[in-house]
Write a structure and sequence with these properties.
binds GDP-alpha-D-glucose; 484 residues
């Protein structure tokens, strides 16, 4: 019986080596893990990825233990050393591909050593996949760390059906053409039978690069490539709607004694400020998320509309991310400084305009934040999709609340009922914030209902299901070649 092999940079498991050398393994609860659950559970399906522990951290005994433990979760670990992690992950993936694909040319490094490491590590992933693959199997590869993997597998096992999904934006041809190893990267991706993107725009940009760089024949969303047809399509990723909605419902009916410390603080704030509006933002501390823009726009808002002083508070959760990459360290310094400056300038004895949390929070606290906030202010300068925007909507069980969303987030393509803004336009953000604060509840509810209906229908499970259906369909259509 054929199976599906899922491949991603990290396994969907948190693996921690405790001080006494024992292992603590907890399954990840993120969106991707949820969406892939049914694909992974089916038959002999396995998930291939890095465990998060380097070879230097694990002696042969521990390595054996890790392998046995992940096997129980139907996972297989790819072994990476410190050098790989430094050059492939922090290097090429996060200093070259991540900034380039998010249009941050000025942050993009083109280092040959790191490119070589990227190729080597993609080969390491391929070797593990090839050890477990049988003719007729499906492989579903995820994200920008593994762009070369489809070809490495296809060359050795032409009878496997390979899908690839990119979780970040695919940039326009004018950006992509600057990449020194552009042909190899495209050919790596074209090893897949189906290439999926979050939006039609990313799909379009990819096809344009293929046409102009490789000069391949493209008809609609099909590419003639050697003796194969590669299909390209968009699959906007959804969320586990019920998980967020149900958690919010339980939360609303919570016994006061069960409330978290954070929720008590939020409640106090609501009482002590006579219902001042709460504006929420949640993101990894990443330069693509538009955090400084948001803070400057909030400062501009307080200056332009002083009537809202003491009447509005921004709660900003910034989750630590890639903190050994210099640009992320700079962003942290800039953010700390901006928050300090704004709070210093506007705070009164009874009011601090920004509550800033630089940490990761447990799921329950995320729900506290989502359900207590009147407005979500999500302003990335580029974002493949942005699931936070969708999660906020799912938790609005009373159908109130307003979502302000950057038009540069993939999610904006499906969320027209949000208030869409250009993240670089301070005035527009400030005016939209005022509009959101003053929006009548009937209008909030009208917009929220439509957004919720759509999210409820196109969940992350549905996303995975549609992708797999399209992947299986490529097997049948394989023989129907596009005329050249
Ligand atoms: C990439 C793309 C694309 C956040 N803080 C905490 C926490 N989170 C959870 C959120 C949400 C997820 O992390 C973040 O997802 P996003 O989609 O917003 O952003 P990226 O991490 O950049 O993800 C993005 C995504 O891949 C999927 O394809 O949408 O465009 O960049 O689910 O809830 N979860 C917990 N504590 C936190 O403090 N528990």
């Amino acid at each position: 019986m054929s199976k599906t092999i899922i491949v991603s940079n990290r396994l969907p498991l948190q693996i921690k080596l405790e001080n006494d050398n024992s292992l603590k393994i907890t399954p990840s609860v993120g969106g991707l893990a949820t969406g892939m659950k049914s694909v992974h559970a089916e038959g002999n399906g396995i998930w291939v990825g890095w465990s998060g522990l380097t070879e230097e951290e694990t002696d042969s005994f521990t390595k054996k233990k890790v392998n046995e433990a992940v096997k129980k979760e139907k996972c297989v670990a790819v072994s990476l050393n410190e050098q790989d992690v430094e050059n492939f992950y922090f290097g090429f993936s996060n200093k070259t591909l991540w900034p380039l694909f998010h249009y941050f040319m000025e942050y993009t490094e083109f280092e040959k050593d790191q490119w070589e490491s990227y190729q080597e590590v993609n080969q390491k992933f391929a070797d593990v996949v090839l050890e477990h693959i049988e003719d007729g199997d499906n492989v579903w590869v995820h994200d920008y760390q593994l762009l070369l993997l489809p070809k490495l597998i296809k060359d050795k096992k032409p009878n496997t059906t390979i899908g690839f999904f990119l979780h970040i934006p695919y940039p326009s041809y004018e950006i992509f053409r600057t990449f020194p190893w552009r042909e190899q990267l495209l050919e790596g991706m074209l090893g897949a039978d189906l290439l999926g993107f979050h939006t039609y725009d990313y799909e379009r940009h990819f096809l344009s690069s293929v046409k102009r760089i490789l000069r391949l024949d493209v008809k609609f969303n099909k590419i003639n490539y050697h003796d194969r047809v590669v299909t390209v399509d968009s699959f906007p990723m959804g969320i586990d709607y019920n998980k967020f909605h149900d958690a919010a419902l339980t939360h609303t009916n919570q016994n006061p004694k069960e409330k978290s410390e954070l929720q008590r603080r939020l409640d106090n704030h609501i009482q002590s400020t006579s219902n001042a509006k709460m504006v929420l933002s949640i993101d990894r501390l990443d330069y693509t998320k538009g955090i400084p823009n948001r803070l400057r726009a909030f400062e501009y808002f307080l200056n332009k509309y002083p009537q809202f002083k003491e009447k509005v508070r921004l709660i900003m959760l910034a989750v630590p991310s890639r903190s050994n990459v210099p640009q992320y360290q700079k962003l942290k310094r800039d953010t700390d400084e901006l928050v300090g400056r704004i709070n210093g300038e506007f705070a009164t004895v009874s009011w601090t305009p920004i509550w800033y949390f630089y940490r990761s929070m447990p799921f329950e606290n995320l729900i506290d934040l989502y359900t207590s906030s009147d407005i979500a202010l999500i302003t990335p300068v580029r974002d493949g999709m942005n699931l936070v925007a969708k999660e906020y909507v799912a938790t609005r069980t009373n159908e109130d609340g307003v979502l302000i969303l950057s038009e540069m987030a993939g999610a904006s393509k499906e969320m027209n009922e949000a208030l869409l803004i250009n993240p670089n336009n301070f005035e527009e953000i400030a005016d939209t914030l005022k509009q959101a604060i003053e929006m009548p509840t009937e209008e909030q509810s009208k917009r929220m209902k439509i957004l919720q209906k759509r999210l409820k229908r196109y969940t992350v499970e549905k996303w995975a299901d549609e992708f797999m259906k399209s992947l299986n369909a490529t097997k049948i259509k394989d023989t129907v070649m596009v005329s050249t």
